[in-house]
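re: ur question from yesterday

yeah so i grabbed the chain u mentioned. its 190 aa long if i counted rite. heres the sequnce exactly as i have it in my notes:
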Amino acid sequence: MLIPFIFFSSDLVFDGRQGNYDESARPNPLSVYAKTKTDAEQLVLANPNHTVVRLSLNGGASRTGDRGFNEEMRRAWQAGKTLKLFVDEFRCPLPAIVTARAIWELVAQRKPGLYHLAGIQRLSRWQMGQFIAARWPQLNPRLEPAARKVYAGPPRPPDTSLNCAKIQKLLSFPLPGLGEWLVANPNEPF
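ran it thru and got these structure tokens back, copy pasting raw so excuse formatting
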């Protein structure tokens, strides 16, 4: 029995100049993290039995409460902080529980290769913050819109949204957008 090998990569392998990247798009990493992911993808895909899945942001509830982007936001609000979130940086977040379900279905189908797996909603950091703030009104969440140009760190890709049509054809369920999922699952930890 062949045990599948799946490598989790990132939407950050792209420079973010165009967005809506499909699997045929050429990576152009802007950071050491992204370059490391790109190099690892090549090694993994050299074996035709292996799979690379590029993910966007994943959110959910971790055991330690500090793993997901949503948990970072919640912790900041619990500390009384105001979050400055970019209005001009876009990704396609997906709840980790949906990611896990999709990966199990992919494994069961035994179709190795390169896949993109993300939410269907292209959202700015600002929009993500608004969805998550609505989930935690008791924390009195405070948000401020910001532009990427105020960020003093390494370059950030403006739009790493992923086209997930390839994997969607294999799944038994439609990939949701973050806003849609949060509304439909009010009792799921997030």
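noticed a couple things. Residues 78 and 138 are 10 Å apart (CA to CA). also The chain has a mean pLDDT of 95.
anyway ttyl
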